[in-house]
Design brief:
Elements: E1 13-19, H1 25-38, H2 43-63, E2 72-80, E3 83-90, H3 117-125, E4 128-134, E5 137-144
Antiparallel strand pairs: 1-2, 2-3, 3-5, 4-5
Helix pairs in contact: 1-2, 2-3
Length: 145
């Protein structure tokens, strides 16, 4: 009787801690794509996750650190049952992007307020989005079925 090697299990959670620099976004997208491919996440959901994470992390990189210096953005992606959860955490200035008013998408382009469209897209692509300030950290939590 021969023993078979156990079937390897894929991690259901990844943690990416990266310097808050725009050049790290491509590597983050690669990690996310590999995770989704390994778990059979469909391409439409992968695309939505990429758009959302790129939008939110880009905003953190550009606006969360007016003091400059070196900062870390932590992105956690986990799969529980058939739901994906994403946490994006930074030590930037306190900011709840969900507090922004909904943009007027019916107005003419030249009459629209600048900003807020990215968060509008995030809200529409995800099933649930929440924000909390924990100590000196901003944390956005997203859920996608």
């Amino acid at each position: 009787m021969s023993q078979q090697d156990p079937v390897p299990t894929l991690p259901k959670r990844i943690v990416a801690s990266l310097g808050a620099h725009e050049e790290n976004l491509a590597r983050l997208a690669e990690v996310l794509e590999a995770f989704c491919e390994a778990h059979g996440v469909n391409h439409a959901t992968q695309f939505a996750l990429n758009v959302v994470i790129d939008e939110l992390v880009t905003n953190v990189v550009h606006y969360a650190f007016p003091d400059g210096g070196e900062h870390i953005v932590k992105v956690v992606v986990s799969l529980e049952n058939s739901e994906l959860f994403i946490e994006i955490e930074d030590d930037g200035v306190p900011f709840d992007p969900l507090s922004l008013p909904e943009p007027d998408t019916e107005a003419e382009i030249e009459d629209r307020e600048i900003g807020g469209l990215g968060v509008h897209i995030v809200r529409n692509l995800m099933d649930e989005v929440s924000y909390e300030r924990i100590g000196d950290k901003n944390r956005l939590t997203l859920r996608k079925a």
